[in-house]
Amino acid sequence: MTKFALALACLIGTTPLVHAQGTASDPWSPVRFLAGEWQGATTGERGTGTVSLRFRFILSGQYLQERSMASFPPQPLHLDGAVFSQASFLVYDGSRKVLLFRIFNQDPLNGTFALSATQSSPTRLVFESEQLDTAPATWKVRKTLEVASPNEFTETLEVAEGGKPFAVRSRIQFKRRQP
């Protein structure tokens, strides 16, 4: 895909994912489609709920900022309901030539995740934990984004505790909010 065609696709919001790690001219190409507002339904360890999500480029395009809020109505896991928020940043590490996801939330799963070139594809982005802030050192966490279209993706969060196999902690089906 030429640079002109890629730029045109970005402008009209239909950018296909080109390579898991991006191109030399645009390291953001794998995640550029995320920019915008999303609405989703979540299931997992916290129960069922809804999630609102917003990605936007900040500081002259050096970071892709994520802000999200998950709301859980009253249910056995949350008798009075619950709200959880998250702030994250994607950054391109030029020295390593890799996208990093820095996640901050109310879980012990805060940390730095790197895009895995070996596990990712144009429609599947796999971020693996490199460093977790408060979880035990033996834990591994994986965040996978599976892209169905420029306006729909699924986020799956998996945790491997103490050498055990990965287990799904949550799955969210997102659709782009229409203006």
Any descriptors?
179 residues; mainly beta; Lipocalin; ten-stranded antiparallel barrel; 51% strand; globular; disordered N terminus
In CATH, the homologous superfamily goes by the name: Calycin beta-barrel core domain
**Overall tally of domains:** 1
**CATH class call:** Mainly Beta
- Please, what is the oligomeric state? single chain
Summed up:
The chain contains 1 helix and 10 strands, in the order αββββββββββ. Strand 8 (140-149) and strand 9 (152-160) form a beta hairpin.
Explain what this protein looks like in three dimensions.
The protein has one helix and ten strands; from the N terminus they run αββββββββββ. 6% of the residues lie in helices and 51% in strands. It has one helix spanning 3-12, and strands at 36-44, 49-58, 63-72, 82-93, 98-105, 111-115, 124-132, 140-149, 152-160, 167-176. It has a single domain (3-176), classed as Calycin beta-barrel core domain (Lipocalin, Beta Barrel). The protein has a ten-stranded antiparallel β-barrel. A hairpin with a 4-residue loop joins strand 2 and strand 3. It is mainly beta. The radius of gyration is 16 Å and the shape is globular.
Task: Present the secondary structure layout.
Blueprint: H1 3-12, E1 36-44, E2 49-58, E3 63-72, E4 82-93, E5 98-105, E6 111-115, E7 124-132, E8 140-149, E9 152-160, E10 167-176
Antiparallel strand pairs: 1-2, 1-10, 2-3, 3-4, 4-5, 5-6, 6-7, 7-8, 8-9, 9-10
